[in-house]
Description:
- It is a single chain.
- The chain is an alpha+beta fold.
- The chain has helices at 3-29, 98-132, and strands at 45-53, 60-69, 75-78, 90-93.
- It has a two-stranded antiparallel ribbon with strand order 1-2. Strands 3-4 form a two-stranded antiparallel ribbon.
- Helix 1 packs antiparallel against helix 2.
- This is Flagellar basal-body rod protein FlgC.
Amino acid sequence: MSLFSIFNIAGSSMAAQSQRLNVVASNLANADSVTSSTGEAYRARQVVFKTIDVDTTTAKGVKVAGVVHDPSPMKVTYDPKHPMADEKGYVTSPNVNAIDEMVNMMSASRSYQNSVDMMNTTKTLLQKTLSIGQ
């Protein structure tokens, strides 16, 4: 694996983690919304990653394979006076767990920062390698 493959690997990681951060932001923004654009309660989303080849060697990167709905059950509360209550008086709320989303956000931001640090370290090593020949 060449040093230049590191840039491709880190770049793919940064793009994937950036999308993960966007999904987390969307989940947190809709954590208290009882309706979405479809008229139903918002369902949390999760990012699914997939490994990819970044060059002809064994170097692997990552990309987002898709964004799926979280299968965990929706929150249901009894509030017959709520305008969105069903005929039995229950209101369906999003299945967003704010603590889990904050953990996802911290994990994604640290992964992103690690990729940035990896790129900067590689750049420094390449610059030092070039300066040896001078």
